[in-house]
Amino acid sequence: MASARNINRFWEWGRKIICVGRNYADHAKELKNAVPTEPVLFLKPPSAYVTEGSSIMVPFYSHNLHHEVELGVVIGKGGTAIPQNAAMDHIAGYALCLDMTARDVQDECKTKGLPWTLAKAFNTSCPVSEFITKEKIADPGNVKIWLKVNDQLRQEGNTSQMIFSIPFLISYISEIITLEEGDLILTGTPKGVSSVQEHDELQAGIEGIVSVKFRVHRP
Which of the residues 20, 121, 129, 154 could staple to 96 if both were Cys, CB 3.0 to 4.6 A apart? Predict the structure, then answer.
């Protein structure tokens, strides 16, 4: 069984993706949202995962697909109500992730007071890099992440700008949703989100550690 649960391929068997919205003040402001006083959480199913070599598919019902680059935290040891001072022990490693968002659909959901599922949880809405070991990121609270579309820089930020720290998020989430080995937490996106079109090439990276490329297609 151990070989079937290789943490380096967490996307093949991890059971849930827990996303934190509006965790960078400048991003909250660019979408004209209030800066939150507690984390905004939503979920993606494991069917949202896509890895390099496959395409990001624009959902058929959306005409305004946005990129959001994020540091992902891969859980190595599960738990409920994990105290902040023990939170880092529950991390197996990291991944660079994209939270692809059907922004037109999300705006409509917000207006109607509906959940964001159609905007956030569709197939290929969670592109991920290879697994990054803990050793490669000494301080996940000080990591530079960036994203380019067709070689033009769109997003650049540092996880030090996050409103809620990674230990806080692990503790907060695990009070509500038990964390399990292989789960992924998306920690929020810096400002600069924008629309992508069919055939665009997205490249994203963590400075000096990893970079990924994905192409956008319409089904």
Answer: 129
